[in-house]
Amino acid sequence: MHVDTPLEYLESRIYDEINIGDSSSLVRTLRPEDVKLFALMSGDMNPALANAEFRHSGLFQDFIAHGMWTASLLSTTLGTQFPGPGTVLIKSATHFARSVAIGDTITVTVVVQKKFAHNHHIILDCSCVNQNNLLVLSGSVEVLAPAEKIRTKRTAMPEITISDKYARLQVLVSRAEGLAPIDMAVVHPCDRESLRGALMAADANLIDPILIGPEQKIRAVATENGLDLKRHRIVNVKHSHEAAAMAVTLIRNNDAEALMKGSLHTDELMTEVVSHRGLRTARRISHAFLMDVPTYPRPIMITDAAINIQPTLQEKADIIQNAIDLAHVIGNPEPKVAILSAVETVNPKIQSTLDAAALCKMADRRQIKGGLLDGPLAFDNAVSIVAANTKGIDSAVAGRADILVVPDLESGNMIAKQLEYLANALSAGIVLGASVPIVLTSRADTAETRIASCVIAALIAHATREKLKGAG
């Protein structure tokens, strides 16, 4: 008899209910998160499973499961299906016939071969086959049958999200592979994170940093934190304000093609950037956070959350165009732009809804180009298709936003910081609309955030080079 357990219950078979030849099966499909979670729980970081170079060296052709992941399915079958709850595993012998790759569907089958009345032990033959009916595991187990009948409602398993910020950083860094490092003026890198971030970006071959600040202070930070400055240029100035002015001068003289903010206040740097001899263009300068949020299926941009406090309608148009241009640089040819407000309907009493409606019409008239705009949208229906459908919003943008345009700096900054600190988002901050990209991170940001921002700056700088070549 083949035993099937009801989906809503776990039910055991005691010794007297089990006959030789009885069988049961369990079906599971291997997902990427299964491999990661098993590695975390077991501590088994076998390079055949975790290292891409090793994985594609010829021995393995894809992500594969730990062998014991497949073996653990036997335990699941015995403990939840047959004989079921109360089963005690005494011993097992298994043979691994072939590897299991991500996407493989495994069918586990156990069949009763022997029973021992004196101790209520049972021997079962076990096999696991993949979707092609190829054997991946075989063996046998000896178990102690449940001593009493158990019938209990199944408990829903919690959803698990695995967030590996370092791995996501490496994916981002790979976007700039093959590009030559850019000369970046690093303004006043006089604390551990700002100096370490610049040096990490240099080690990743993203930038060639020009360290601008009090040389003695920079070297003291390096010595204190074991950082090597031998390969890097230092421009000695007296203080942070002079460092900002020197950085702008280097850009104007074509000695650098990007800026990075160090341990000085944003206003101090941006005052030099927007001065009459600064780095302004015809476009309004704005800031964008590019964020990789573990619970969102694609990178998402938030703008402006750092520079424009209460932007006007025209300033919002520039902010959106800056963000769209950045999306093009990072490989999104038609980004979906959600213009946020507290509600998704136009309300004359809420200025942001009026601005959103006007901005969408400006896009219709080609005053904003290269993206697909919709608004006003509330945050929930901008990022959740379920929320958008619940509210009856028929939109190609709602629930699928690539860019979130916030009403003002306060709301944008709160959204970005919440995603970073509560959702473990990897964040890259960049200033757009100036003559060069500016990495504008917070003094509290980690070196990982700074290196992620350098990737974006490098991509923009190389795109600018290509544009200038085309114009020439």
SSE order and pairing:
Blueprint: E1 9-11, E2 23-29, H1 32-42, H2 47-50, H3 52-55, H4 67-80, E3 88-96, E4 105-116, E5 121-129, E6 135-144, E7 151-153, H5 165-174, E8 182-187, H6 192-203, E9 207-213, H7 215-224, E10 233-236, H8 240-252, E11 258-261, H9 266-273, E12 286-292, E13 300-303, H10 313-329, E14 336-340, H11 351-364, E15 372-377, H12 379-383, H13 385-390, E16 403-405, H14 409-422, E17 426-432, E18 438-439, H15 447-471
Parallel strand pairs: 8-9, 8-11, 9-10, 11-18, 13-16, 14-15, 14-16
Antiparallel strand pairs: 1-7, 2-4, 3-6, 4-5, 5-6, 12-13, 12-17
List keywords for this structure.
472 residues, alpha/beta, Thiol Ester Dehydrase, Chain A, Isopropylmalate Dehydrogenase, 5-stranded antiparallel beta sheet
Overall description:
The protein has 472 residues and is an alpha/beta fold. Among the domains are: 145 residues, Hotdog Thioesterase (Thiol Ester Dehydrase, Chain A, Roll), CATH 3.10.129.10; 152 residues, 3-Layer(aba) Sandwich (Isopropylmalate Dehydrogenase). Helix content is 35%, strand content 23%. It is built from 15 helices and 18 strands. Strand 4 and strand 5 form a beta hairpin. Helix 5 runs parallel beside helix 15 and helix 8 runs parallel beside helix 9. The chain is elongated. The protein starts with 8 loop residues before the first strand and ends with a helix.
